[in-house]
Design goal:
8 helices; alpha/beta; 24 strands; single chain; 6-stranded mixed beta sheet; globular
Length: 372
């Protein structure tokens, strides 16, 4: 029996376009191989389905009933992570960063050790953590707790996150660039710790955003949300997406956080740098209803469809959309520093998602093995 599987009679996604050709995977090595060098193989007929790289999730606060700030014991946390991993893979996600929003230093230090990169049986791979705070603007707090926000000038990174967590699990930090000391913080995070630095939850104007990019920031967090609105005379951080620096930018394409027409405008402005995210919360995958809060949101939360708000208000907490409901994952692998996956090319890891013509997930393969 051959170690090579040939996916035939379908379409593969390359560079955002569909091509009718075959894809060859070495299931033993878990990687894509060049079909011209293959002599024997097993056939998997796609029957017209689409095969694409498994999705990469940059920003999820939780799902399947679990929020990443809810820590009881290391054992129970691990059990919940396993459930999250299996839920995410069912939506086509192959790898993800877990987002920790603005919480106290005590909670950061308690939770982050459990978010080191790790794999799960038949689930999506956890690649580390995205810390969305605490250096954010209280004026653009969204659902974050303004009382826990900090100013870079008056805090030390080690005191907030813990030195070991900075080395072992934090991959990205979101910062409001107008805060005192932010340029120094951004430069330190990027140059000394090699982290991705994103701009968000901010009142910054365009010029301040440009200076932050020059200091080392490389992306914008959920563009249009929790920032100054795009204005023809004062574009704010949203205007950075078409700047000469060409930062990556994430966008919540759920039809709630951003109107579909605006999503289309943003994508067309810089398609190579657009990243679809869910910004999901723990109610993703759960029935509609009212749910208790947690370390980020100390209020009751109301879920109606994909919309989640603080009960009795219009304040959006997050979304319950899955990446399979978004159009597709757009070039996120390069931002995350993942050069072993995210593209259907020989030598890349065979993390694959099979879709029907409408984009619904049919099957998911991780490292050349079918997991759903």
């Amino acid at each position: 029996m051959s170690n090579i599987v040939a996916f035939v009679e379908g379409y593969i996604c390359l560079g955002g376009k569909l091509h009718k050709r075959s894809l060859y995977v070495d299931v033993k090595k878990g990687c894509i191989v060049d079909g011209r060098e293959v002599k024997a193989y097993e056939i998997c007929n796609l029957h017209g389905q689409i095969i694409a790289p498994a999705y990469l999730e940059l920003q999820t606060n939780g799902c399947a009933g679990f929020h990443f700030t809810n820590f009881e014991t290391p054992e129970s946390y691990q059990t919940q992570l396993n459930a999250v991993s299996r839920y995410l893979v069912s939506t086509g996600v192959g790898s993800f960063w877990a987002t920790i929003p603005t919480v106290s230093p005590q909670v950061f230090k308690k939770v982050l050790p459990s978010l080191k990169p790790q794999t799960f049986v038949n689930g999506a791979e956890l690649l580390g953590a995205h810390c969305e705070g605490p250096w954010l603007s209280p004026a653009k707090k969204g659902a974050h707790d303004a009382a826990l926000m900090q100013v870079p000038d008056s805090t030390e990174v080690n005191d907030i996150y813990g030195a070991e967590n900075l080395r072992s699990c934090i991959k990205m930090v979101t910062v409001a660039p107008e805060l005192a000391g932010s340029s120094k913080l951004i430069s330190s995070l990027r140059q000394n710790l090699r982290m991705v630095v994103s701009l968000g939850h901010s009142q910054a104007d365009y010029d301040t955003g440009i200076k932050a990019l020059e200091a080392g920031a490389s992306t914008v967090t959920h563009v249009f949300n929790a920032m100054e609105p795009l204005n023809h005379r004062s574009p704010g951080l949203a205007g950075l997406i078409s700047s000469p620096q060409k930062p990556y930018y994430s966008i919540i394409a759920d039809g709630i956080h951003v109107h579909p027409a605006v999503v289309s405008i943003a994508f067309r402005a810089n398609p190579e740098r657009c990243i679809l995210i869910t910004d999901s919360v723990e109610m993703a995958g759960k029935p509609d209803g009212v749910y208790p809060g947690h370390a980020q949101v100390p209020h009751m939360q109301k879920k109606v469809g994909n919309r989640v708000t603080i009960e009795g208000t219009d304040t959006l907490i997050g979304s319950c959309i899955g990446l399979d409901e978004c159009v597709r994952n757009l070039n996120i692998a390069n931002l995350m520093g993942l050069y072993d996956r995210g593209v259907l090319a020989p030598g890349r890891r065979a993390d694959l998602v099979m879709l029907d013509a409408q984009g619904h997930v049919k099957d998911v393969w991780i490292k050349g093995r079918k997991v759903t």
